[in-house]
Amino acid sequence: MKGIEHWLLTIAVALQLLAMCVASKPLSALAGGLFLVGFLFAGRRLQGYSRGLLLLALSVTAWLTYHGELAVPQLMKASADAGFYAAFLGSLGLMQCLVRRFEVLRQIHDVLLGGRPLWLYPKYAVVSCGVASVLNFGMMNLLCGTLSETLRERGITGQSRLRWLRSVLISVLRGFALVPLVAPTSVAVAILTRELPSLNWSTLLPFGALVAVGLILLGWLLEQRRFRQVSAERVALERWPAGTLGLLVLMLVVFTAMAVLVVLTGLKVSAAAMLAVPAITLLYMLWKERAPAAIVRESAEQVVSMSNEMGIFAASAILGVALSSVIPSDALSGLASADGGVFLLAAAGLLILPMMSAIGIIPITVLSILAGLLPQLVAEGMNPLPVSVALVIGFSLAMMLSPFGPSVMLLSRFGQVSRWKVAFRWNGLFVVIAVPLLLAFLALIAP
User: Which residues cross the membrane (predicted)?
Assistant: First the structure.
């Protein structure tokens, strides 16, 4: 491993998890500070977008602090939020260490392409969502990387290769985009429940699940013909790959541990996932290999491999706190109580996220700012549920349309296709059809 940032980022993740266990905001703020120092040490090893967003966040915060707009409590919150969101991604990403240890994950496309062609799109979308609920961006690395290897090994080129990429990778991306709607491990859920302690994932789930089913049905209608062509070139497996049962048992243990933590400690589901995933992953690795030093090195390397994404998450958290803190407290006063006000706020939240993503502002940055405005509206008596549902829907759509978002960039890199083509040509029609239907859904649930 190279550079002091490797250990700084790993220690920062561990410190944030400790801060959650002891409910210490100063310790969480210290973890955020360590993340920032680690990113500064990384310097040019970070990608341009991540580095630029970090510099922008720090510059805006410094400028506002110099002019007296931000006080110590806001700076502490900004640092603590940066630590939480960076550690959220870093801790869940440790699950990627298990990918190398299960044969079924290396043959996952042959597994998913089995069965009737009619069911391939919903199968991919549901499985992608389920795997991403645990692996987060590790799921994109897994499914995109293994598809690239599969196509190369089988010599699939030209139009056939493009058809595979369009069918498989777009269903993977859309399945990943369902995570904010249904998964307790979503960063969108983590942001909203952190800003609104009265809000729970279980409250959002019924609405998110309905929207997820609708989006799967829409994608199924648009993509099933192309998937039929892909299915003609698949390879049938004679039996399930080795390790399938073990992987299922391990996933069950992870979710059981999360449930136990929620029940016994009162932690939010997202926080419970941050503790359960790395703990069980490290215990499994130690049980199998009994080499603590090697396991620590591998874990640190895995954390650092996500430094660009963690940098984006940390910078977005800082910008969210800084900008929402200087918005006048009465900026939205009275809007929620006006006729149709809640629907207007919900519709605006749903539309702003994908619109900003389409011009290059990633969803987590926009959501961090919008979520910072919600406590003010709730204090005025607004029911936060419709707007929160709208924000997770908007976040889901934005993940498909953001050409600079981590998910689209990963898909573009593995598929060797333009990220603009992925975001707009492959997903544009899908989003154009989905938005009016989703606005109608909001009109039903918003008073």
Answer: 53-72, 84-104, 168-192, 204-222, 242-263, 269-287, 308-327, 333-353, 360-379, 385-411, 423-446
Count of all residues that appear for the chain in the document: 447
How many Å apart are CA 144 and CA 138, to the nearest integer? 10
Distance CA(435)–CA(88), nearest Å, equals 29
Report the amino acid identity of residue 295.
Answer: I
- Which residue carries 């829907």 as its tokens? 393
Q: Is the dihedral of CA 12, 18, 21, 23 positive or negative?
A: negative
Q: What is the pLDDT of residues 108-131, one digit of tens each?
A: 777 777 777 778 888 888 888 887
Of 336, 340, 420, whose CA–CA distance to 378 is shortest? 336
| Cα-Cα-Cα-Cα dihedral sign, residues 307, 91, 144, 403 | negative
pLDDT tens string 229-243: 777 666 666 666 666
Give the C-alpha separation, 146 to 335, whole Å: 49
CB atoms within 10 A of CB 257: 17
Calculate the alpha carbon distances from 298 to 6, 7, 90, 141, 390 in Å. 11, 12, 13, 17, 39
Q: Please give the residue that has the higher pLDDT: either 311 or 99.
A: 311
Percent of the chain whose predicted confidence (pLDDT) is above 70: 89
Residue 434 pLDDT? 93
